[in-house]
């Protein structure tokens, strides 16, 4: 057992956990003041329910047995996790992976903002974290998973987390419909300073997310950390540049959104690329995710806080660009198109993106529809107008 | 007795207050209000979506004066509130039927 590697993975697990409250603030600032506690609560609750379910069954579904599609109950209730002890303890890996499981469904809450019943959301996230996340994580992160076996690369979750959450978000909003007043009533962010705070916490935590995915305190982790910083930095610059050209202003929300878009895109690539690749990947993601904002208006999707534009599109960009920029001189076994590896990796990356995406969309749609048609997933109209803080939680965020 | 109401730019409040004090006005009531005149609103952009903000934040100042003090008060407000740019605001004058000082029960100009 390597104490340095163990120490880093444990710290990285804590960093990744911190991303979920960061995400809560990032989203919370963007909603109206009557819904801010509803948003914070959905995210904080994910830390409670998903961690518990991960210990009970999630980890086992993701990492138990050797089936290519789905795990078994070998590690249920954390039984025999110590059999995974190696360079780092099995429980260090278990904890690190747990934090990814927590934040992934929390990402969906940005699309469904302002209109989910809390109890139904609780049920949705419980089912989703086991049936969708744990299975997709197995495909991508477990050596037995079919996507991993195929040779596709996903360093820290471009497909397993961002494409997965992005298409799940689309499926849920298709089931629940648009907010009352969407497109006719202005719904500007109520507290952008909260969003900036959340961005800072997300960015900070993302070092654990990406550099921790090396599962070692080594050169790959250092490369991943630098790539993470540069992906975020150029993502911000790319977004701001096109925003400034298009609207005449560089906005605070744009700076935050661009940084997150860059972070999303660099996630699958973080430990597999080097040189100027992170600068190119971040810039492309920042600019492209800005333009992706306009998809929802064309399609009349009320993706309230742009989970599709930032996470789905950013995740697809990162997953596919890895097929061009992967460099075995940095890490891994496969070179991308630009490094003499031909188009094989790019094809695998495409299959990984489509495979996870289609699975996530279809299964999430079924889960959301089942909940909507039984206990109801969306709040009553009056509750929505009053706001989730009062109607769902009997609280107010701001009292004078 | 007359009530003078002035809707002004918020950042000019201190100047208006000083100007009214110099003119000998005994007290003023201030409230934060929103509205629009010819200035209209402004536009804000969030993630590419433009929001038209129709109601501009303003400050409303109210003073009660005797008939003889109306013009002095109006001049003082104008002096304090003017920037020369659009949106400087409006002043209007209305009749006050009665005015009572709560502590002493005095009425009319003695109560101001």
Kindly summarize this structure in a few lines.
Chain B: InterPro entries: N-reg_PII, N-reg_PII-like_a/b, N-reg_PII/ATP_PRibTrfase_C, N-reg_PII_CS, N-reg_PII_urydylation_site. The complex is a heterodimer of chains A (400) and B (112). With 400 residues, chain A is mainly alpha-helical.
Explain this structure to me?
The complex is a heterodimer of chains A (400) and B (112). Chain A is mostly helical and 400 residues long. Chain A has a single domain, classed as Ammonium transporter AmtB like domains (Ammonium transporter fold, Orthogonal Bundle). Chain A contains 14 helices and no strands. Chain A has helices spanning 3-28, 36-63, 90-108, 118-141, 146-150, 158-176, 192-211, 219-247, 252-269, 277-299, 307-325, 344-374, 381-386, 388-393. Chain A is globular and about 55 Å long. The model of chain A has no long low-confidence stretch (mean pLDDT 97). Chain B is α+β, with helices and mostly antiparallel strands. Chain B has a single domain (2-111), classed as 2-Layer Sandwich (Alpha-Beta Plaits). Chain B is built from 2 helices and 6 strands. Chain B has helices at residues 13-22, 70-81; strands spanning 2-8, 29-35, 42-46, 49-53, 56-65, 89-95. In chain B, the strands form 2 sheets. A 4-stranded antiparallel sheet of chain B has the order 2-5-1-6, with helices on one face. In chain B, strands 3-4 form a two-stranded antiparallel sheet. In chain B, helix 1 packs antiparallel against helix 2. The N and C termini of chain B lie close together (9 Å). The model of chain B has no long low-confidence stretch (mean pLDDT 93). Classes of the chains: A mainly alpha (400), B alpha+beta (112). The A-B interface holds A 186, 188-189, 243, 246-247, 249, 251, 253-254, 257, 290, 293-294, 306 and B 44-52.
